[in-house]
Amino acid sequence: RVHGETSLMDRYEEFSEQGSLPYGNAFQDMGYGDDGLAEGDHGYEEKPRILLMGLRRSGKSSIQKVVFQKMSPNETLFLESTNKIVKNDISNSSFVQFQIWDFPGQVDFFDPTFDKDLIFSQCGALVFVIDAQDDYTEAMAKLNMTVVKAHEVNPEICFEVFIHKVDGLSDDSKAETQQDLVEHALAELADAGLDDTVSLSFHLTSIYDHSIFEAFSKVIQKLIPQLPTLEQLLDILISNCCIEKTFLFDIVSKIYVASDSSPVDMQTYELCSDMIDVVIDVACIYGMGDDEDGFAYDSESASVMRLNNGMVLYLREVNRYLALVCLLREDKFEKRGLIDYNVAKFKEAITKVFEVRARGHAHALPAAAAAASAAGAG
After folding, report:
1. How many CB atoms lie within 10 A of CB 266?
2. Which end of the chain, C or N, has fewer beta carbons within 10 A?
């Protein structure tokens, strides 16, 4: 550590004393945990729900298949239209644990058989998908009705609007479409008297690029109670190691569950996301014996990629569900030992942070501070 710098322990303890976590107070634990906790005995109905809603053929099922079931975007052309609520439990192979409920487009909120209390009461986020290439007048009316009904039952729901299938639009058309939809949606909320109480987040998405993964990353992050702690840890890591950008990825879905506080650049995210694919693919070919089954990713997984612009991509395993991917300048990577040491201490701190699920915030955050205390020693 350079003389005169504030140590990681001092900075982390100052942060941990603040205590409160702004996200997730109204939601149940996402099921995150360390290697021993992530496969706990959480009942199906206990996991938070993310509801996928929108008109027929808007692309809801395609989004779920591409992001969480690794279906090729081209294969989604053959998916049949959803005609009933499809529930999927995202927890068995991924660090991200929650339920996704895919609703058919013809859901009628005025149908007496529609139990809005049951549907919305345990909902953490509601994702409404709008086809940007189609007339969205009807979709906007359905969005407004959905928001009003859901907010009546659960005022804590995070509302996310995916302006989908924008791959067929020019940049100017994307901007115009988004502006039109935002203005229309805000006017509808004002008419319903909800403009001061409901916040809508809009995302331009397509299954043919990384935009859908980035959008879902932002949805998931709002449901992670430990997000501020993760961001603070990443900020401390990059400041001690002179790293440009860091992402904490769920390696199965390629959703980043956290990043440092600097703005996310789409090209940087794409590079880091593609690196995970490369590492896993190579590991499956060369890192497994003939008699081995399972996932080619373990505590020894790591990779370094040197780019032709003087930057380095560096990946390290955090646990069997998470990977830390960093972007830094090549001259800063010369102190590889220092970086590896700090990353090791970061991994210990992450493990302690997620033990809040078992022990509660009051005990876990001080333990995380102790685990992280040596990381500033470089």
Report:
1. 11
2. N
